[in-house]
Design a protein that fits this description.
Helix content is about 30%, strand content about 25%. It is α/β, with parallel strands linked by helices. It has a single domain, classed as 3-Layer(aba) Sandwich (Rossmann fold). α2 runs parallel beside α3. It is globular and about 45 Å long. Belongs to the 5-formyltetrahydrofolate cyclo-ligase family.
Length: about 200
């Protein structure tokens, strides 16, 4: 990877991480409620019955309320578990699932572990991002887990990244392994980028 791209990514991630730290507790609550409403509507529109979603950290737009409600409504939700080899295992979310600290200190579920190919059965992937640009290029946090997952799927369903409104930007630094997303979900809107869903 050219150093200039990596440096640009690092600088942008640092700026975004710092901005996320300044969001108030009230702002986080409002963001989680907004994201839940947007994701509920997206799942409904797509008729998704099996999805994957990540468990948000305290600085990300919250996904926990959405996951709990989706499970309660009978939607099969796969949650990611990081592995040392750069791949993701998955487990099915349950109402009483225990959450522990994962490989990088991120919240991860405790449950029966399904291998990386389990995600091939979902109708919708909901993934984290630091930022997404208008072309659908996603800037992740630098470990490549979701780029590898998306890139390895034979028939990839719609992929939506959850970000704050200010993180939907004109341009993000792009490298060859970076995978685009179908759209973004923010606390106030859902934007389809490739026309696959709205």
């Amino acid at each position: 990877m050219p150093d200039s791209i990596e440096q640009a990514k690092r600088a942008l991630r640092a700026d975004l991480r710092e901005r996320r730290q300044t969001v108030s507790a009230q702002g986080r609550e409002a963001a989680e409620a907004g994201v839940k409403a947007q994701l509920d509507a997206l799942v409904e529109r797509l008729g998704a019955r099996s999805i994957s979603c990540f468990l948000s950290t305290t600085s990300e737009p919250g996904t926990h309320a959405f996951v709990a409600d989706a499970v309660a409504r009978g939607i099969r939700v796969l949650l990611p578990i990081t592995r040392e080899d750069g791949l993701l295992d998955w487990t099915v979310a349950t109402p009483d699932a225990e959450i522990a600290e994962g490989l990088f200190g991120l919240p991860e579920p405790v449950g029966d572990v399904l291998g990386p190919i389990a995600v091939n059965d979902v109708d919708l992937l909901i993934i984290p991002a630091a930022a997404v640009d208008r072309r659908g290029m996603r800037l992740g946090w630098g470990r490549g887990y979701f780029d590898k997952t998306i890139g390895s799927m034979e028939k990839c369903p719609p992929v939506y990244a959850v970000i704050f409104d200010s993180e939907f930007v004109d341009d993000v630094p792009k490298d060859v392994h970076d995978q685009p997303v179908s759209g973004v979900v923010t606390p106030t809107r859902t934007v389809a980028i490739d026309g696959s869903a709205a």
